[in-house]
Design goal:
The protein contains five helices and five strands. It is an alpha/beta fold. A five-stranded mixed sheet has the order 1-2-3-4-5, sandwiched between helices. Helix 3 links the parallel strand 3 and strand 4. The longest helix is centred in the middle third of the chain and has 16 residues.
Amino acid sequence: MTVQDPDVVATSGAESAAAESPRAGQLGLDVRTATEGVTVVSVSGEVDMLTAPQLRAGALPHLDAGSTLVLDLSGVSFLGSAGLAVLVEASQHAKRRDAQFRVVAVERAVTRPLAATGLGEVFSVFGSVEQALEADRSR
């Protein structure tokens, strides 16, 4: 019988890719200012009931009056109902503050829940950050 230490992380093949991604219960958030008043928050990992509060805390503060928030979900591998609730909250928050809220969704893990719930029709959804930023320039 072989016993493996649970604290040892495999470093070959698919396991190494998993070791580089955010751990369960953690969400990768990268915040950058594209131009004055335009913030891009790039998200990676799984957005579920454990990580949705991190997404909320990382996104909502960037929705100031007249600002634009581009939420880049291209690095998200799972989007659960708690994550969808954060997107709805961000959209409502943006409307109350006369701000713009845009979602970048390219992976099936994100586009499918958006389509299944009809939220893809509610949000401004783009195929790339560049397209979302271009929409801001043409306003």
